[in-house]
Structures are given as structure tokens and as C-alpha cells.
């Protein structure tokens, strides 16, 4: 399967090269698109140098450097646009975090679900996944955010806030035809609402989620509060179009 894995990156110098190498080692059909928001730690330069010097990377690793930090959702969308613009089409797409909280060895499972006819496959922490290294406060917030999203949007989705996802080309086209209305992690819920509105087949599989051990978290208190507010606007829009 020819697949593009999109890595939205900001200040991921400590993790990015090891993650890209791990993905490339899994399957010769995988390509990686790193979308970096001009990280001040020089992530783009590091990736660019690796593309130029490491065997096989020039053909399989792509770098998009954006002028300003525009949020995770916008970075993923730019990666998807790049994929759709290529002459040789990709059979599947994926997005994942750059800090090894999403295990690269789970990628084949997600893409296999796309091959089997699903449009979206979510690498889910709930209800049967495993979470390692989270403090109680983070667990409580995540549980409340996902319960709220399920109640307001669609109860069939158990994990609205995890960014380890796999898509068919049709699903990627649906997302790019929709205007992005939220920045930050709330776009994860917004994008799922669009896919559900379109009637696409969404499935999930349990993963092991491990809290990052290297680098700094990009999630701030401000972004968390914004996400909670955003869930209500996403739900209102979803209900309006789902009627």
C-alpha cells in the first residue's frame, strides 16, 4: 500500500528524525511529509539536511515549512494537499504526533483498516486502549472532553481528541472541501464531525498511548480551555447540518 504519513511538527528537533526513520523502516510503500511551523529550534533545517544526506530520504521524505505557527489542523491539511497534488496517487493517508506517543508499529493496522474499505480509522485510547504516563488531571480532562463531544456530536465515536488517524483518499477530499473553523486540537473534533456528516465509514482500533518522554508538550492551558469552548460550536454546526 502506498501511503503518506503526515507529521505536524513544532519544536520537535529531539524526536523528528528518529520518528521518520522508524516509519520508513516499516514498509517501503510509506512516505512521510513533515509540516513544520518554522520551529525556532531548527527542526526544518534538521529535516532538510537529512533529506539531502540520508539514503532514500530524498524520494520518500517531504518537507513543508510554513511561515508562522498556524495550529495542528492547518499543518495536517497542508500535508494532505501535498499528497493529493502528487502525480502518483496515495492509497491511504495518516496523521500522528511527532513525540512517539503514537507508536509507529501501529501504522500498518490503521492502514489495513483503510484497505478493507473503511474511510477513516482512529487509533483510539478509549474504550480499550492503554494510556501510560498521564497524570490524573490529564486523564480527567480527556475523559470529560471526550464524553462531552460524544454527547453533543455522535455517541458512536469514543475518542474525539486523539490525533492518530488514517484516511482513504475520499475522506481526505471531504476534509479539504470543508473550511477549517477551529485551530488547535479542537480541529480533531471538527474534522470528525465533517466526516460523519458526509456519511463516511468510521472505525477505530485500540492503541497504546505513551506520554511523551522527550521534548516539551505543545499543549497549553489556553488551548485546553479553547478546545472545551470549541466543542460546543462544533456540535452546534454538526447538528445543524445533520438534520
| Domain module tally | 1
Major sheet summary line: 7 strands, mixed
Q: Given this structure, which CATH class is correct?
A: Alpha Beta
Share of helix, binned: 40-55%
Query: Can you tell me the CATH superfamily?
Result: Spore Coat Polysaccharide Biosynthesis Protein SpsA, Chain A
What is the averaged pLDDT score?
Answer: 90
Number of helices: 9
Structural class: alpha/beta
Order of SSEs: EHEHHEHEHEEHEHHEEH
- Shape, principal axes of CA atoms: globular
> Which spans have pLDDT < 50 for at least 5 consecutive residues?
214-218
The overall strand count is: 9
Strand content: 15-25%
Task: List key phrases describing it.
globular, two-stranded parallel sheet, 7-stranded mixed β-sheet, Spore Coat Polysaccharide Biosynthesis Protein SpsA, Chain A, single chain, 243 residues, alpha/beta, 9 strands
Could you explain the architecture of this structure?
By secondary structure, this protein is an alpha/beta fold. The protein has a single domain (3-242), classed as Spore Coat Polysaccharide Biosynthesis Protein SpsA, Chain A, CATH 3.90.550.10. It is built from nine helices and nine strands. The strands form two sheets. A seven-stranded mixed sheet has the order 3-2-1-4-7-5-8, sandwiched between helices. Strands 6-9 form a two-stranded parallel sheet. Helix 6 runs parallel beside helix 9 (221-242) and helix 8 packs parallel to helix 9. The longest helix has 22 residues, at 221-242. The radius of gyration is 17 Å and the shape is globular. Residues 214-218 have low confidence and may be disordered.
Amino acid at each position: 500500500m502506498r501511503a503518506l504519513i503526515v507529521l505536524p511538527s513544532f519544536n520537535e528537533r529531539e524526536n523528528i528524525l528518529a520518528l521518520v526513520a522508524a516509519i520508513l523502516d516499516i514498509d517501503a510503500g510509506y512516505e512521510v511529509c513533515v509540516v513544520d511551523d518554522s520551529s525556532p529550534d531548527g527542526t526544518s533545517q534538521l529535516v532538510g539536511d537529512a533529506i539531502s544526506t540520508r539514503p532514500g530520504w530524498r524520494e520518500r521524505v517531504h518537507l513543508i515549512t510554513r511561515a508562522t505557527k498556524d495550529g495542528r489542523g492547518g499543518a495536517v491539511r497542508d500535508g494532505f494537499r501535498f499528497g493529493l497534488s502528487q502525480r502518483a496517487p496515495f492509497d491511504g493517508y495518516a496523521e500522528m504526533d511527532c513525540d512517539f506517543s503514537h507508536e509507529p508499529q501501529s501504522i500498518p493496522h490503521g492502514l489495513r483498516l483503510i484497505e478493507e474499505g473503511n474511510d477513516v480509522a482512529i487509533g483510539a485510547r478509549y474504550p480499550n486502549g492503554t494510556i501510560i504516563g498521564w497524570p490524573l488531571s490529564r486523564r480527567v480532562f480527556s475523559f470529560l472532553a471526550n464524553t462531552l463531544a460524544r454527547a453533543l456530536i455522535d455517541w458512536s465515536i469514543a475518542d474525539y481528541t486523539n490525533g492518530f488517524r488514517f484516511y482513504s483518499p475520499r475522506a481526505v477530499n471531504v476534509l479539504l472541501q470543508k473550511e477549517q473553523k477551529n485551530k488547535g486540537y479542537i480541529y480533531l473534533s471538527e474534522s470528525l464531525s465533517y466526516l460523519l456528516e458526509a456519511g463516511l465509514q468510521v472505525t477505530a482500533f485500540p492503541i497504546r498511548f505513551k506520554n511523551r518522554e522527550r521534548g516539551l508538550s505543545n499543549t497549553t492551558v489556553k488551548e485546553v480551555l479553547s478546545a472545551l469552548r470549541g466543542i460546543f460550536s462544533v456540535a452546534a454546526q454538526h447538528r445543524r447540518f445533520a438534520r
